[in-house]
């Protein structure tokens, strides 16, 4: 794991393998950002001109590397674009700093130690840079660095050591903020690992074992319901989805409690370790990335562990609804009726609408503990990706102010989300001739239909939000900022901030 330290060293005196500085896009070419004054001096005040000669403009995400002949103690200088020059001098949005730090860290893959001399105007800036750099310093090589490929893979190792310059290491607030960044980024990277792990190695039992080890390490309470326990507990939804697979389903309850907590939150994650669609099999081209269908559960798990590491004054229970959705002679058929944990019956018209079935049981079970609020996180529908694209998650729920709060918190932590409605008239599309409800309704507004289905399993008077992260959970395009290809850890920063807000008493 990448190490992060803070140093009072000047940018021109730090010994490292590379130095990162920021440049902004000005009307007449690139402008060197604060934090790099000494570096500019080492270039006789001509750094901006030198960078412009190399084609740099300061655009967001742009990376320019140049060799250093003298004046600095690093052989490489990396200038990363911060986007347009801010209206207020050197006051950048936290997300611009986070992305720039991430892009720089990614460009330094294979490097050992790098100093980051980006503009730090506040504690929040230091935190954003630390977070972005640590999230950018990620690669998933667990399946590549064996045998003869070892040497090649070596170059793919993430930046090993990040030295943050310009922040006051002895300032208590700076220390706390950067320690928070380390805890959150490490858990996000761990969630990314889980999402990226191929489904032949990550299945309900092995996911539960990972959670179990983490619970031990961080002093969390954990309870794992295996198939026998699920049968005994009447978890018809989770069992119905998992019954076609050779590897059985699990429901994991992992909880963090603080002795002085006044509020409790329940986080519920969709954990389909592989979604083939089941008997309603997905066509080729639609299942290659479906190892990502447990990203909701990974996010919930990571958030609970991060909350524990931060020692927040709030109780948070994570529910991981784990199953593998496979077709076989024992699989649920389209037309089958499941009796759910809540007692409701569901006619399964499409076995590919499986996420709502496992979540329904977990939501009903979590409701029994009467949390002050519940949030479920799921790669639930392709329709949400159609609606919002692949970088934005949808936020639905039964409580407008809670839904708004989540959208605003997401924006604050640099996660793209958008509030979506649950129009009542879409409910009747799920009317079933045989059961209480069907697991499918109208095709139009499919993401909202799924949300309406979930709502039926939420306990009365519990504020509930549903995050459909099908778009941003798994990044298939080229990496950008601190976002790598593959698992992203989407929604974790929002979940952690929500817990912090709740602990601080900021939310009803
Ligand atoms: N896991 C998928 C949704 C998904 C799609 C996640 C693309 C990530 C990327 C989910 O289980 C699914 O198959 N949903 C169906 C629902 C339909 C059958 C009602 C869908 O969206 O097509
Ligand atoms: Mn599916
Ligand atoms: Zn799915």
Summarize the structure.
With 508 residues, this protein is α/β, with parallel strands linked by helices. Helices cover 34% and strands 21% of the residues. It contains 15 helices and 20 strands.
Tell me what you see in this structure.
With about 500 residues, this protein is of the alpha/beta class. It folds into two domains: about 5-170, 3-Layer(aba) Sandwich (Leucine Aminopeptidase, subunit E, domain 1); about 220-505, Zn peptidases (Aminopeptidase), CATH 3.40.630. It is about 35% helix and about 20% strand. It has 15 helices and 20 strands. It has helices spanning about 35-40, 45-55, 95-105, 125-135, 150-155, 170-195, 205-220, 225-230, 235-240, 295-310, 355-365, 380-390, 400-415, 445-455, 490-505, and strands spanning about 5, 20-25, 30, 65, 75-85, 115, 160-165, 220-225, 250-255, 265-275, 315-325, 335-340, 345, 375-380, 395, 415-420, 435-440, 465-470, 475, 485. Manganese (II) ion binds near residues 275, 277, 352 and 354. Ligand BES binds near residues 353, 381 and 446.
Question: What layout of secondary structure does this protein have?
Answer:
Layout: E1 3-7, E2 18-26, E3 29-32, H1 37-42, H2 47-53, E4 63-67, E5 76-84, H3 94-107, E6 113-117, H4 123-136, H5 150-154, E7 161-165, H6 172-196, H7 204-218, E8 221-225, H8 227-232, H9 236-242, E9 250-256, E10 264-275, H10 295-310, E11 315-325, E12 337-339, E13 345-347, H11 355-367, E14 373-378, H12 382-388, E15 393-397, H13 400-413, E16 417-419, E17 437-438, H14 446-455, E18 463-468, E19 474-475, E20 486-487, H15 492-503
Parallel strand pairs: 1-7, 2-5, 2-6, 6-7, 10-11, 10-14, 13-17, 14-18, 15-16
Antiparallel strand pairs: 2-3, 4-5, 8-9, 9-11, 12-13, 15-18, 19-20
Helix pairs in contact: 3-4, 4-6, 6-10, 7-10, 9-11, 10-15, 11-14, 13-15
The chain binds ligand BES, manganese (II) ion and zinc ion.
